[in-house]
Write a structure and sequence with these properties.
With 252 residues, the chain is an alpha/beta fold. Helix content is 39%, strand content 25%. Strand 4 and strand 5 form a beta hairpin.
């Protein structure tokens, strides 16, 4: 689904250049759940921004379903982002003036999709995520967990190829964090959602099937969960982070 090929990203002027990404290459298969970890300044958020088309690469290629994002004209980027990418935000980003149903179907409505088709797609995704009975309510009328599910449903409703999450649990308490991670895990296992999540938190990363570790703009190591339990995988992640070094508060 996603192919990242030798991408580089530079910031700064001619006399003061910072290399944020240094020849990063990897593939993401359809239905994978991948976490990207690393200390502050390792390049993990820059990498996600380049994949999400929020930023552009200085060199290399990013292909999503065969489309080279790095070569898309600026006029096509917004539409590509809306149609092919889903985003999971830590603060939900739901609009209180729209119902839950309207929030979930927003991207489809912006694409001028047939209203009946929008209603069917929204209903199908909402049922899978267990919120089919709150579609007529407004966000301020539902619980935090239901808001999380609505935000995730919105990310899936338009049939987006790839879900991107940048520190999705960063501003949440432990209970809300666990709920969101379990929802994302459900989306991955039950709906075959392909997820790429940047996180500094080992517990969050342990929900993924693969964890990539960045250091100084390069892939330092990666772990595959396989058949191991999440608890065992969590401790293996901690072991890699200990070798990775850096400020413990940044990476654990």
């Amino acid at each position: 689904m996603l192919q990242v090929r030798n991408i580089e990203k530079y910031y700064g002027s001619k006399n003061n250049v910072t290399k944020a990404l240094d020849r990063v290459s990897f593939d993401v298969a359809d239905g994978e759940f991948i976490a990207i970890m690393g200390a502050s300044g390792s390049g993990k958020t820059t990498l996600l921004n380049c994949i999400s088309t929020i930023d552009t690469v200085s060199a290399g290629d990013i292909l999503l379903d065969g489309v080279n994002i790095a070569e898309l004209p600026s006029g096509e980027l917004a539409r590509f982002r809306r149609e092919r990418l889903g985003f999971v935000f830590q603060d939900f980003n739901l609009l209180d003036t729209l119902t839950v149903e309207e929030n979930i179907g927003l991207a489809l409505a912006l694409n001028h999709s047939d209203p009946n088709a929008v209603r069917r797609q929204v209903g199908a995704v909402a049922q899978k995520l267990g919120i089919g009975d709150i579609l007529e309510k407004f966000p301020y009328q539902v619980s935090g967990g239901q808001k999380q599910r609505a935000a995730c449903a919105r990310a899936m409703a338009a049939g987006q190829s790839l879900l991107l999450a940048d520190e999705p649990t960063g501003a949440l308490d432990s209970r809300a964090s666990k709920n969101l991670l379990e929802i994302m895990s459900e989306m991955n296992s039950g709906m075959r959602a392909t997820i790429l999540m940047v996180t500094h938190d080992s517990y969050s990363a342990s929900y993924a099937g693969r964890v990539m570790f960045l250091k100084d703009g390069r892939i330092f190591n990666e772990l595959l969960r396989g058949e191991r339990t999440r608890a065992v995988f969590y401790h293996e992640i901690l072991d890699v982070l200990a070798v990775l070094g850096g400020d413990v508060s940044d990476v654990i």
